[in-house]
Amino acid sequence: MTVFVLAGGRSSRMGTDKALLSVGDESLLQRTLHIVASIAPRTWIVGPKQRYEMFGASIEDIYAGCGPLGGIHAALRATSTDLNLILSVDMPRITAQFLSWLAEKAETSQELIVVPDIAGGLQPLCATYRRAVRPYAEQALRDGDYKIGHLFSRVPTRILKEQEITAAGFLPEIFDNVNTPEEYARCRPLR
């Protein structure tokens, strides 16, 4: 499995690059990279190379300005593995234990996408995508359809329900993300 950390968003609601915000003694990006290092030997950062390559191997969107779907497409185009974990940089409470559990579910699934449905909705930026999703993502981008959720009706997708996730011992709070200064203030106790 390869992990792709989506870090290249505009951070428009935050007003500054979220990936570089500090949580404790490291940035959100460094925290995410440390978490995923324990579950996969290959990790890539998806975002502007000049901004992120100092943190690790980086790739850029091929379809720039198309939101997270552009990042997923770039990841699936760059990958050398069938199974790929896509993770947004702005989920500071996510755990290696959950990501390992998600990877196990994906490895035993026939579906091309495995996505959690928890914390009020689907979590497409903490999900697994098989390489075969790439042409569907590319077609959506060419059509100007940037909603990741539209892929779920086009390719075989397994939705992990909240009950299954919580029964495995994971709380919805691990999916909290940081999009605004207020959300960032709430995550800072992670120090």
Description:
This protein is α/β, with parallel strands linked by helices and 191 residues long. It has a single domain, classed as Spore Coat Polysaccharide Biosynthesis Protein SpsA, Chain A. It has helices at residues 28-37, 49-52, 68-78, 96-107, 134-142, 162-167, 181-187; strands spanning 2-6, 22-23, 26-27, 42-46, 58-59, 83-88, 113-118, 121-122, 126-130, 157-161. Strands 1, 4, 5, 6, 7, 8, 9 and 10 form an 8-stranded mixed β-sheet that branches. A two-stranded antiparallel ribbon has the order 2-3. A hairpin with a 2-residue loop joins strand 7 (113-118) and strand 8. It is globular, with a radius of gyration of 15 Å. The protein starts with a strand and ends with a helix. 41% of the residues are buried. The mean pLDDT is 91.
Q: What structural keywords apply?
A:
10 strands, single chain, alpha/beta, two-stranded antiparallel ribbon, globular, Spore Coat Polysaccharide Biosynthesis Protein SpsA, Chain A, 31% helix, 8-stranded mixed sheet, 191 residues
